[in-house]
Design a protein that fits this description.
By secondary structure, the protein is α/β, with parallel strands linked by helices. Helix content is about 35%, strand content about 15%. It contains twelve helices and 14 strands. The strands form four sheets. The protein has a seven-stranded mixed β-sheet, with helices on both faces. Strand 6 and strand 7 form a beta hairpin. The relative contact order is 0.16.
Length: about 375
C-alpha cells in the first residue's frame, strides 16, 4: 500500500546525515532539531504555533484537554473515521454525537450538524478524511453562532488547502480553534516511528498545549495542570525536517497517480472514483473507490493473489464498534456511513507508484469485475 523503502532511498543521504547529527548531539528529546522542525512547519502552514507531540491520537486528546471540557459535554464528529477521533473523547468521559457523512467526499454532512447542537455541545471535530478538507466555512459559521470550539482532525490531510468564498485560502488544520496532525509513517508527511503535532493561532492555547503535552509543566518540575507525556523525539523531527522539503513534490506525485486511476476507471458502472470537492484541494492520502454490485472480499482475495494489496477504510463505522457497545447507537442510525463501510476499497497510493504499476493494478481489477 505504501512504498516507504524506495521513498527513503531517494533521500537517504539527507536523512542519514540528519540522524547522525542527532546522535552526535545526544539531544534525543526536545532540543534544537525539534525547535527547527517546529518553525519549518509553522512557516509551511502559515500558522502561529506548532506544538509537536508523540502521535496524532495524543494531539486529539491534548486538544480536548485544553478546552476545559467537563464529563458529559458533547462533541460532534463523524462515525466514518479512525477510532482515535471518538476514542479520546470517550476517555475524557465526553459524550460523542455523530452526524452522517456525504456519500461523495466521505466527510461530515455539514447540513446535519446544527440539528445535533444542544446546550451541552462544546466542540465540533471535523475530520479531513483521505486527504481533502471538510466544508469548513459553514462549520466555522456554526461554531461562531453557538460559541463552539472547532478541533480539526487533519491527520490525513496535511498539505490540503481550503478555499473560502472570499478568496482566502487556508491549510488543513489551521482554520479551527486547534488543528491536529499525525506523522505516522504512511502519512503524506510521515516519520520513521510515531509522531504528531497540534496547531493554533491562539497564544494562550498554545501555552496550555505545550504544558499539557509535557506533564502539565512549562517550567521543569513545576506542574500547573494535569497533563500527559507526549513529545516528538529528535530523530523523528530530524527525519520530518528533511521530508517536509519534499512534501509538495510528494503531493504532486499522489495527484498524478490519482489522475491515472481516474482515467482507467472512468465510466465504469461498477466503480465510483473519489470526488474532489470544489472548496478543497485533495492530497490523496488514500485513493478510495466505491464498488457497486461487486463481491468486495472476493475481489480483494483475487487482487492479493496477484500481488496487489488493498485495504478497507473503514469496515465498521464507529457507532457499530464493539468498544462503543455501551452507547445507544444501533444499525441504521447513520445509513451513509454504514453503506460506505460495505462498499469502499482503498488501492495502493504513495509517492513511488509507477505508471506500469498503476496499469497493472487497474487492468487486473477491471478484468475481475
Amino acid at each position: 500500500m505504501v512504498d516507504l523503502k524506495n521513498q527513503y532511498l531517494k533521500i537517504k543521504k539527507e536523512v542519514d546525515q540528519k540522524i547522525e547529527e542527532v546522535l552526535e548531539s545526544s539531544a534525543f528529546i526536545k532540543g534544537e532539531i525539534v525547535d527547527k522542525f517546529q518553525k519549518q512547519l509553522e512557516k509551511y502552514l502559515d500558522i502561529k504555533h506548532v506544538i509537536p507531540c508523540g502521535n496524532g491520537t495524543d494531539a486529539l486528546q491534548a486538544a480536548l484537554m485544553a478546552l476545559h471540557l467537563q464529563p458529559g459535554d458533547e462533541v460532534i464528529t463523524t462515525p466514518f473515521t479512525f477510532i482515535a477521533t471518538a476514542e479520546v473523547a470517550m476517555l475524557l468521559k465526553l459524550k460523542v454525537v455523530f452526524v452522517d457523512i456525504e456519500p461523495t467526499t466521505f466527510n461530515m454532512e455539514v447540513s446535519l450538524i446544527e440539528e445535533k447542537i444542544t446546550s451541552k455541545t462544546k466542540t465540533i471535530i471535523p475530520v479531513h478524511l483521505f486527504g481533502q478538507c471538510c466544508n469548513m466555512e459553514p462549520i466555522m459559521a456554526l461554531a461562531k453562532k453557538y460559541n463552539l470550539a472547532v478541533i480539526e482532525d487533519a491527520c490525513q490531510s496535511i498539505g490540503a488547502q481550503y478555499n473560502f468564498t472570499d478568496g482566502s485560502v487556508k491549510s488543513a488544520g489551521t482554520m479551527g480553534t486547534i488543528g491536529c496532525i499525525s506523522f505516522f509513517p504512511s502519512k503524506n508527511l510521515g516519520c520513521f516511528g510515531d509522531g504528531g503535532a497540534l496547531f493554533t493561532n491562539d497564544d494562550l492555547l498554545a501555552k496550555k498545549l505545550k504544558a499539557i503535552t509535557n506533564h502539565g509543566a512549562l517550567k521543569p518540575y513545576h506542574h500547573d495542570i494535569v497533563g500527559i507525556n507526549s513529545r516528538l523525539d529528535s530523530i523523528q523531527a530530524a527525519i520530518l525536517s528533511v521530508k517536509l522539503k519534499y512534501l509538495d513534490k510528494y503531493i504532486e506525485a499522489r495527484k498524478k497517480a490519482a489522475a491515472m486511476y481516474q482515467m482507467f476507471f472512468a465510466d465504469n458502472a461498477k466503480i465510483s472514483t473519489p470526488v474532489k470537492s470544489l472548496y478543497s484541494t485533495h492530497v490523496y492520502h488514500q485513493y478510495t473507490i466505491k464498488l457497486h454490485d461487486t463481491n468486495r472480499n472476493k475481489l480483494r482475495d483475487i487482487l492479493s493473489k496477484k500481488g496487489i494489496p488493498s485495504m478497507v477504510y473503514y469496515p465498521v463505522p464507529l457507532h457499530l464498534q464493539k468498544a462503543f457497545s455501551s452507547c445507544s447507537w444501533k444499525n441504521g442510525d447513520f445509513p451513509i456511513a454504514e453503506a460506505l463501510s460495505n462498499s469502499v476499497l482503498s488501492l495502493p497510493m504513495h509517492t513511488e507508484l509507477t505508471r506500469e504499476q498503476i496499469q497493472y493494478i487497474c487492468k487486473t481489477l477491471l478484468n475481475e469485475l
